[in-house]
């Protein structure tokens, strides 16, 4: 614990130092990068060793810092910080990715001036994420939660000269405070359970508040509207941190709330079903909106909503398992959900970092202007490719493994409960079908983004000229320096490692899953052995999977060699290189790169199919020169259906209602004098009656 | 289940898969009153393609080169997960049906990217359609597999592998006419027609790029790459026909493994003849109608899923 405290303090110190000195001295920023890396390495080592150590179960409460707090349900001498298995599990992705993103961010912002405030907010965000995960006291949790929200608000505001960014940051700030408000209410409600057992209504109100409060941070669907805006307009490393890690802290908050609630009551089945439903809605809603986006970062941001949906489906399945005493469902559901937290953090950071490189080189986020970047930035394209495959849940990468666990939870449940129609079964089947639909749509979305941005030819001729010029000048690819590439490659290799050898994740998962399953407080020893059995069967499944994937790799390599030999034979026989010719153009002799499929045309048929759920605003303007078309412009914009029909109408209703009150404040002074007189008379009457 | 014949379940499909195209085309020729190409035409085609030179588009990258390798390798992995009559599959583990489904997703992903790689609108059109229809078909396939996992011997099915799911049909059960399986078979047949890009979803023979799906994606493939892709799609045809054959014929009819395998292969050939008949008697659907047929398959699997709980 001492180590964690040390790294936290180091991060805070970094924040202070960068705020006051980074603008004055050049060496401060690299220095703080080094110290923060050190602190994260310490955190990582600490969490890994304590998660893997066998005695962790017995001594879960290694408390420190006993300070008397008496507010919000904390009794006297309650500890400030505490380590538990789930917190340790969340610390692993936080520390790994913070190191890599920080290194990337250093290079990304290297030539910018006046970054002191940015770095201060950046380190505060990193420190607050660790502190939120570790905090035991509710008040301290809220303070850290608030620091996290505010520092990320300032990071989103980094490019505050754009009006769009200011608006996005404002929406983020209001929604995050709406969430905090729900969390405070939750703490107040749940703290009464220490005095007397909660009534069922209060209990469900509590859980609902927790879901809304923490859900708004992690971006579940009705309260997600801040997420695509803020993540798309923040600088790319910040989007990576927010999308990869901060929304996961929201998930942690939800799990933490569940833990405090279940310490007295067992989990209610209806609540578990609500969580699954919210997961399904977020997943499908998120992926449908992802489909409609033409902006790289906005697409990735909506995709986070989808993946949060998958995580909530996993946790929800686990909760159903807990409430119906189905341990297999509970174990596999929680394991899948938690592993997806880790996996999504990995590939979402990877995708945002690669997208960041693309954006910093091309200076545009619009997919329809890009194309053919694979030839200009091969390493970035490779990393994005790995990230795209992983996030679509395709083997042999890590996204497949976590979705596999969630599917397996379902299949084992149906196989062991034959021919009983129960309410939860309907929800489980719906969840699985939703996962299948999400999988298919995610594949489509990521095939779209990768092929439009990196394959084919550059769609905007000006950009093609400019980038070609840059390449000729520097005589190297546009991938950026080593500090940009290496963090991405490390995340790539982690994705591949988990994909090919999924059993490495099991020792990390077993303790957190145990402490989640034990929430239901059934007779614990038999439960633990059952969980361990389940994990050992997973172990054997995973080893077969890695065997299959290795075989797949072997086949690939042998086919590759076959092809190589064929090429060798051919080139030596004909004494010439492999011919490279123009793409077959169907006999048309003047093709331009603008004739390629664009992002909108790629998704058009699918969007048409889902036209009830996606609101597309089309805008076609044609200029006539007497009789002929001179210039035509087409612009289509896909609006978020929830923003449009839920929030906007709600907002208008409130505005209409409040506009009635403008009569009172009408700007005429004699009315105001009249108000004062009326008020004074009322006061007099009150005084008289009171006497 | 017999394990005495290692790799026969891999070798037979690898050898016989290209023959299936020959059977389909011969059936179509007979219906059209033509003599038709030889039964072994696909083998000749593959042999010819293997001797052709490489040629690539100037806008293509390593994606198109790697794509063909990945597609073939992933299809072969799926072949390893598939049993052949009563010979068990080479690899099986609990939940390998998911690997089976998602390996085909990998194939599809690489297919879409290879189409997009050359930067032509034709290929892109095919890619977009491939992704669209596959997205509709994926829930149907998964639901069909879920349904299979709920019928038959449950003790056996708790292992949830392709191996056990496809052996639900035993000789004793055969005459009880399980409604679940009866409804699943046409659903699987529709999925087969879609996944192997046959009429009425896609036309393998047309020269109009605007109407094709699969054939248009591979327009810029040549030589060894085209051979790999053609071979992989013929293996895919084998895999899906084999699934249907498993659902129609009990795996262990006579007790002799060799004769069982022969009966299974015969069933696959008959399925191919049926595909040929469908192709000669149906017209290709308009593109906007295709989605209705796929949704029909989804509804069929859903009905069979509901019957499996009754």
Give a brief description:
The complex is a heterodimer of chains A (691) and B (310). Chain A is mostly helical.
What report would you give on this structure?
Chain A has helices at 2-21, 28-52, 85-108, 116-134, 138-156, 163-191, 200-218, 226-233, 236-262, 269-291, 296-323, 327-362, 373-376, 378-391, 398-416, 423-454, 461-474, 482-500, 506-517, 524-574, 599-609, 641-659, 669-690, and strands spanning 64-66, 79-81, 580-581, 615-625, 628-639. By secondary structure, chain A is mostly helical. Chain A has a domain at 645-691. In chain A, the strands form two sheets. Chain A has a two-stranded antiparallel ribbon with strand order 1-2. In chain A, strand 4 and strand 5 form a beta hairpin. In chain A, helix 14 runs antiparallel to helix 16. The N and C termini of chain A lie far apart (62 Å). Chain B is mainly alpha-helical and 310 residues long. Chain B has one domain. In chain B, 67% of the residues lie in helices and 1% in strands. Chain B is built from twelve helices and one strand, in the order H-H-E-H-H-H-H-H-H-H-H-H-H. Chain B has helices at 8-32, 41-50, 62-80, 96-117, 121-150, 154-157, 162-165, 179-195, 214-217, 223-248, 257-281, 287-309, and one strand at 56-57. Chain B is globular. The model of chain B has no long low-confidence stretch (mean pLDDT 85). The interface between A and B is large, with 82 and 75 residues.
Quaternary assembly:
heterodimer
Estimate percent helicity of chain A.
over 70%
Largest sheet of chain A: 2 strands, antiparallel
Largest sheet data of chain B:
none
Cα end-to-end separation of chain B:
29 Å
Could you state the order of secondary-structure elements of chain A as H and E? HHEEHHHHHHHHHHHHHHHHHHEHEEHH
Low-confidence stretches of chain A: 57-61
Mean pLDDT of chain B: 85
What's the total count of β strands of chain B? 1
